[in-house]
Amino acid sequence: MARKRKIFRNIKLTLSYCGTRYHGWQKQIGVITVQEVLEQAVATITGEQPSLVASGRTDAGVHAMGQVVNFRTESTIPLEGLVKGLNSILPSDIAVLQAQDVPWKFHAIGSSTSKKYQYLIVNSGVRLPLWEERAWVVTRGQLDVEAMRLACGTLCGTHDFSSFTASGASAKTRTRTVSECSVNLPDHPLFPPVPGRQIMFTIAADGFLRYMVRNIVGLLVEIGLGRRDPSEIMEVIRARDRSAAGPTAPPQGLYLMAVTYKPDAYNGR
After folding, report:
1. Which H or E run includes 101?
2. Is 23 helix (H, G, I), strand (E, B) or coil?
3. Where are the alpha helices (DSSP H) in the chain?
4. Which string of DSSP letters, residue by residue, matches 220-265?
């Protein structure tokens, strides 16, 4: 009697999580991470030990609205059941938004073409305890949004972003193409309400270096406070020196919003 052929699947998960109590995405010894918690949940549901691949390694305290993960499995659990099952055992600060069967070649990192991040600032004259873990509450002065917008325009395009990456970063190349960089005042109110302005930075690129977004935001805030001039942005880029840029913005204001994939990533078997 012929053996029943095993069914192998490649499954893509889209996640949302609050990164406050996690030491980032990547599994590490001695600390709790999003990867570790999700792998344990997948193992419980499928009975297998998964190898999860994420689109990016969010740092400690950073949040996600659209993190993408893929893993390969022999499980035949329907997608709807997989989502319900995982969400029934995951902690309240991690959720699976969607599960999708994708071709075997699909890879959460290798198949991606761009990522979009947003960074939230609340510009207030007082501390805001309910927002300390969801935004950077800037109380040091009134931010000049127009000056920050002017600086953002210079960042678009293809540049060497060495001035905006962490010291000792191991990326093979530090050249990235930024397709969008903007500063906006959201037209919808935050909840809980805040005394002050909400300022949202949005940046999309074909890839990001470690701390790149937070280092860019740190410099933009220096410009917004009048400590640096918007015209200095190109000088900072050309310097290719981390010390030429501003301070690193704190992690709690950063959100991974979405990941875009090659059109053919979903084609084939």
Report:
1. strand 94-102
2. coil
3. 34-46, 79-89, 145-155, 212-224, 232-239
4. HHHHHTTSS-TTHHHHHHHHT-GGGS-PPPPGGGEEEEEEEE-GGG
Q: Are 38 and 108 in contact (CB under 8 A)?
A: no
Question: Could you tell me which residues are beta bridge partners of residue 102?
Answer: 10
Do the domain assignments include residue 268?
A: no
Q: What global pTM score does this model have?
A: 0.94
Are residues 76 and 207 both part of a single domain?
no
Pairing of strands 112-123, 254-261: antiparallel
93-127 per-position pLDDT tens digit: 999 999 999 999 999 999 999 999 999 999 998 99
What confidence score (pLDDT) does residue 177 get?
Answer: 97
Return the closest-CA partner of residue 39 out of 6, 15, 65. Answer: 15
How many angstroms separate the CA atoms of 259 and 67, rounded? 7
Phi, psi of 197 (to 5 degrees): -100, 145
User: Among residues 56, 79, 110, which one ends one of the domains?
Assistant: 110
> 168 near 209, Cβ under 8 Å?
no
The domain that contains 63 carries what CATH number?
3.30.70.580
Going from the C-alpha of 84 to that of each of 36, 54, 89, 98, 99, the distances in angstroms are 19, 20, 9, 10, 10
| 169 has a pLDDT exceeding 70 | no
Query: Which active-site residues does the annotation give?
Result: 59
